[in-house]
Amino acid sequence: MMAEGGGRHTTVGPEAGGLMELHSQKLVNVGGGDLGGKSFRFRVETADGRSGEASAPTPLRDDSLPPEARLQRLVDVMADTIAAAAKDGGIGLSEINAIVSGVPGSRDPKTGLAEMPNAIGKDPDTGMMAEVDIEGALKSKLVSAGLSQGAIVRCLNDCDIASAAEDLGENPKVINGDKDIQPLIKLEKSVFLLLGTGIGGGIATGYGVDEGKTGVMELGHVEVYTNLPKEQFACGCGKNHEGSVCIEAVASTTGQEKITRFLLTEELKKPSSIRDAEGVRNLLEATRVWNQSRMPKVDVHDKETYSRSITAITGILSTSMGSVDDIILDAGTIDQLAIGANPQSGIAAEAMRISGEHFGRYLRNLITGQNPARIVIGGGGGLTFRDTTEETNPFWSSMMAELRGPENDPWNSISRTQIIAVTDTNVNLGIQGSLALANKLLKEN
In whole numbers, what is the pLDDT of the chain averaged over residues? Predict the structure, then answer.
């Protein structure tokens, strides 16, 4: 989607909430970025259809520096990367009219200040999470390097940004819904769920992203019913209730590993011949067959690569389980135990079923409360849906069992919501959403 140029425009200036007028013939050069834990990626799109990209490693947080210095290190890398992307696209910084970037953390819509636990961290003077003006600092740095003072610069929560993405690539639709949705063109609501080591979320409407009142929208800490023992499934946020659990604690890749560990511990308490020579040989063969069907490009003899790939794609196994009770097991044996003699009946499959069941309850509650036009599932956990079907994927099938049925959806709202799992690793939803918002801001101003 390209912004239409022409004539007189108003755009947000450096003052909080203020507007300054900008006279220009065309406002169509935009840039979108995504700040991740490992790298900052940025893309520019120009009026004549060209594009330029650049990326750089995200600087590691240095707690020995004051928060202002930590912020400046981050901003310097972002500004240099933006300039490099502009050069790659054949334009200068002065020709970019709107820049939007997703950053991890919360942003207060009233003050514009952001809390970024991973990138900035705490203020040593107060012991509280440091509040920084990353948006203002980035614009100041870019203006000093040549960006127009009247250009739009926005830094918003990365999940909020991703919720505004319109190009999702080729991805399986878990539920088709009524139609394809383009959330920033029409007025439908779109929810993005980042399903990774944690769970985050963002909401976009035709008016832009919905940051809420304070910018803190913890969609991963909505609780759902569970019969899992609370002792093993306390959430990192501190909640630990009998009969309910934060969805992050059971459906994130970390939560799925917890379920696998729990099931494995229970299995090893039972009398079993699983550890005899014949049983291990059978499990090794089942491991090879299961691996080839799910990950044909992974060498099963490379245990380290194998375990990392399993974790990345299914999010349920880890080489870090170590010993269970008094039985010392290496990573390969743990994988074998988890997979079991039948890929659809082993501990891995059962862990996926339990996790998917909880995730389905969560989606049902989310759809009932929000009634969005679509829900987009992204992040590493979204890869769970890749190269599988509902019939062969235990996570998917148990999730759908919770979503289906008139007793679960008396108003038929669930079937009208489109659910898409993003498995196309070539699509960066952060950049897609940033570019969509940049174009939208220009059209509105």
Answer: 76
